[in-house]
Design goal:
disordered N terminus, alpha+beta, 37% strand, binds 2-acetamido-2-deoxy-beta-D-glucopyranose, 142 residues, 2 domains, 5 strands, Nuclear Transport Factor 2, Chain: A
Amino acid sequence: MGTVLGVLLSVLFAFGLIPSDGVGRTVKTPVGPGVPRDINTTDLGVQNATLIAIYGFNNQSNDIFLFKVHRIHKAQVQVVAGLKYFLYADIRRTVCRKGKPYNFKYCSFQTYPPLSKRFTCHFKVWVASWKQSWKMIDLNCQ
Ligand SMILES: *[C@@H]1O[C@H](CO)[C@@H](O)[C@H](O)[C@H]1NC(C)=O
Ligand SMILES: *[C@@H]1O[C@H](CO)[C@@H](O)[C@H](O)[C@H]1NC(C)=O
Ligand SMILES: *[C@@H]1O[C@H](CO)[C@@H](O)[C@H](O)[C@H]1NC(C)=O
């Protein structure tokens, strides 16, 4: 019974139906699906999610230059009808202008102080389990 309740609560938590501190109060050690866990930043899924995140950021920004991920500080993954990735990353402005063909590999970071710019971002990227459809669902950059 305890296990069933634990799983149910983690499912509710996974869908954001109850806040995490609510889970903490009810279940001492949340286990099973739905609990975000740390994942190596070199993981292929994290790499995929990072690409989606930076495309999403560039799509939404008004900057004339493209930004590129400089460093991923931390990555987490959560099972939510697929996988939800949480990325904590530094992104920096590159020398590549938007609207022109580019390859991130050849877009170096701006080094000239008036043009160099950095943000620390928290991205959420979700990939549905039933189709390989990646979506950035949230971003918060400062
Ligand atoms: C992440 O994976 C790399 C190799 O893919 C390994 O060298 C590194 O130690 C791992 N880092 C952590 C924190 O597990
Ligand atoms: C990463 O993306 C590639 C290309 O879309 C896909 O083939 C691969 O399965 C993905 N890997 C993971 C772990 O998500
Ligand atoms: C870019 O943003 C527009 C509107 O903000 C959205 O409709 C479109 O799907 C986005 N494209 C990509 C590739 O993220």
